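Q: Sequence in, structure out?
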Amino acid sequence: MLESVSHLNHVAREWNINPEDVLLIGLNASGARSPLNKPRMRFKLRLDSRPETPLFLILSLGREDSPFEVDESELRLGGVKVGEIDGIEDDDAVLGYWRNGTKMLTLNSNARSQCTGCVFCPNTLEDASDPKIKALDLSGYLGALAANSGMDSLDGVETVTICTGCFLYENLALEHLAEVRAAMEANRCTGTLHFLSSVLTSEDGLDAAAKLGPFHLTLTAECFTERRQILKESKAKLTPAEMTATLRRAKDRGIVTDFTYIVGLDPMNDALAHLRDFVPVTTTFPRFQTYQAHNAFMDVYRTPGSDTIEWHLDMRRGVEELFGPTGLRPQWWQNYRSPWCFTFAGEELEGAKV
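A: Exactly. Output:
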């Protein structure tokens, strides 16, 4: 992937991409060696080249073949310090956390142990907490979260995101979404209710979602090839055509639409051919995530060639050509594994922050 700082700078010059984005792609794809006894960790990173911009990352550790190394205070590439680290935490499930300051609240409000899991998911590798908030507790939890964050209410929160993929059926998801909306209203939050899922697909289900107020559906597409081998059943059963049809139905109902996609699982030509069909039914920038293999077993799911930085930069360029004309742009605070942080197709991005 990346061998050294000099290799990083050479690749950045050759591809005319800022070195920070190249470094972050390589770091997410490679994971890191570490003396820390954690399978994964989340932390705040300040790159030496841009110390004024703190970035959150969630990273796989224990990758002894990685050129990157992290400890309690530093990130090194090939033995050379490239960034400073603080705020280290286990990457376990917390009930709620903020992104973009306090404008976006993410909830893990449904027990993820119900999820059968996809091969790229780290949940089964962790002795993580498994929170679930009962409906009667939701309003109180949101109120306590606001108070603990120095807020009188949640009236300034723009988005509440439900990201646990543990709903087996559409009706169960809709019941929980209605409960979350009621809890939001009890705390004076009228923002967008954002749901990451593969179970909300039917005409009736999308009708019900649209009636919950401002709604944003992120369809968990993840990959297009080898879906039965890689994804849990509720995701794998959807074909790419069915996914674009779902997003089209949602868009027609005034729902904000996008999707998640793991870069590095599909051959590039297959990926770009299918992604082209998603462009017309997507209304905000999709959540492209660099594939993180947490151990050697997970390396086998990498598509051939994606173990090189050049493959990732070529894929990045292909996606830029597809989505560049739409005017939609990524934001790092939405997605800590994005192939874009500071630039997109040579254009400087705003909001590269926590």
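The longest helix spans residues 170-186.
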